[in-house]
Design brief:
Keywords: Membrane, Transmembrane, Transmembrane helix. The protein is mostly helical and 90 residues long. The chain has one domain. Helices cover 70% and strands 0% of the residues. The N and C termini lie far apart (35 Å).
């Protein structure tokens, strides 16, 4: 990844996102899902919930970085909880 001058955490972040997308694609091909309505106010599929979860995680990080002096690991933990909740019950 030297050609883009990425740091190791940045490369790991995008690699994890890529792996998540590949796994979700394989899961969808193996077992297609039916749209459903959970606690989110819209009907969603697995892919929709993944997108909403990732977007919410980005906002958690921006919120904690911008408004507090807490460790980034707290935002990461909150993001994981948020992503799990959206994927499971969203």
């Amino acid at each position: 990844m030297n050609w883009m001058a990425w740091t190791t955490p940045t490369a790991a972040f995008f690699a994890v996102i890529g792996v998540m997308l590949a796994l979700m694609s394989a899961w969808e091909l193996r077992r297609p899902c039916a749209p459903r309505k959970g606690f989110l106010p819209i009907v969603t599929t697995r892919g929709d919930r993944l997108f909403i979860g990732l977007l919410g995680s980005a906002y958690w990080h921006l919120l904690l970085i911008g408004l507090t002096d807490w460790s980034i690991w707290i935002a990461t933990a909150l993001s994981l909880v948020w992503l799990f909740a959206v994927m499971r019950w969203g």
